[in-house]
Amino acid sequence: MNAKIGRYSGYIKPLFCLVDLVILNVTISFFDTNINQSLLFSIYVSILWIILSIKNKFYDIKRFSKVIQILASIISQFLIFGLILYAFIGFFKQPIVSRLEIGKYFLAVIVIVTFSKFVLLYLLSRYRKVFGGNIRRVVVIGNNKKTDQLIEIFRSRPEFGYKFHRKFDVKTDEFDLENCFNYIFENEIDEVYCSVAELSNKQLREFVSFTDNNLKILKFIPDNKDIFTKKLVFNYYGYVPVLSFREIPLDDSINKFAKRAFDILLSLIVLIGILSWLTPLIALLIQLESRGPVFFKQRRNGLDYREFYCYKYRSMKPSNSANQATRGDSRVTRVGKFIRRTSIDELPQFINVLKGDMSVVGPRPHMVKHNEEFASKVDKFMVRHFVKPGITGLAQVSGFRGEIETNKDIINRVKYDIFYVENWSLLLDIKIVVLTVINAIKGEEKAY
């Protein structure tokens, strides 16, 4: 058996946590908060910060984590910590505490913790790249496009801390499992990456047995020719291992609360700051061109496939046809062309958001009859309904909005929607909102 020497650095997460605790406890001294029980406050914020960090997996940052994922983790952490901070005043009966100074302290902590986190991560990446520390030695089993892409990442991104040693081609006559195991053992390899497509069940079992018995980490490169993601999640029910097909971030109550708070805040800003004066103006323009209702509502399917009425400004002449507008559709009015191209017609859906039928960001809801059609034709189409539909979405800012003209359009839309469902973060929502505003200002080719 090979000892587990140097594979992980067990001090990185505790160091990051210790730095944050020092920041929390030292920064408070720079603000005139009138807290008369400083020791109690220190114990309170320290313990709850640690508990919250464990719950949020705040320090579970991978070598390959993206900046957007780290920022999303920071936002999630501080949304709850802010509530914890102000709860101290009421819970411990601190009426003389300055809420303004506590607010300043909170903002200062956000800035300092965020800055220190990125500085420490940068220093760690430089340590890996320049000094070759905190390294994991890896081998790849298999020879195909995906294994080559993975090897290129190992070689081109030294800051990740992976040192690639060798690729084993299992398709050649020279490949021998025993020789492979000896190489892994003799070179003190830490992680083994296997291409599932190229190994038999027997070979896979032997790799699992070898890595378990020699304290090696075994990871699989899936044969995923399908366009849809597959995020398998492993859990234990008692002592029984259970594999879930996917993990949905918005099933977590904290994430759900953060997203709902974001939706309510943004919808109130839009409804009060924009629609309060824009609606009378749009109503006048619509009425001048064609008599009929200002708003248009249509049945759509939302969360868990439940039906709701989706609101829009009317952009077409009143008719009995319920079909979606197509390119050059004669029913679209001149005012309608403008509000559709700029996405202004979608703004009343912030009412849906405030009601809770929709979210600001999510998979776009289709007409009920289209849902029934696509569900029978497009694999995994219904996964979109694990979350609330959105006014805008990842698919829309990625070029797949408007009319479904080809099968490729709906397949790609579903691909992006499933990625969003499985990889949601508050920062991703903010990014999509910003891109939506930019696209609305520029105008889009498929907005008709």
TrEMBL record:
InterPro entries in alphabetical order: Bact_transf (IPR003362), EPS_sugar_tfrase (IPR017475), Undecaprenyl-P_gluc_Ptfrase (IPR017473)
Subcellular location: Membrane
Membrane topology: Multi-pass membrane protein
Chain ranges passing through the membrane: 12-31, 37-55, 67-92, 104-124, 264-286
Predominant cellular place of this UniProt entry's protein: membrane
GO cellular component: membrane
GO molecular function: phosphotransferase activity, for other substituted phosphate groups
Protein family according to the UniProt entry: Belongs to the bacterial sugar transferase family.
PANTHER family per record: COLANIC BIOSYNTHESIS UDP-GLUCOSE LIPID CARRIER TRANSFERASE, UNDECAPRENYL-PHOSPHATE N-ACETYLGALACTOSAMINYL 1-PHOSPHATE TRANSFERASE-RELATED
Designated name of the protein: Putative colanic acid biosysnthesis UDP-glucose lipid carrier transferase
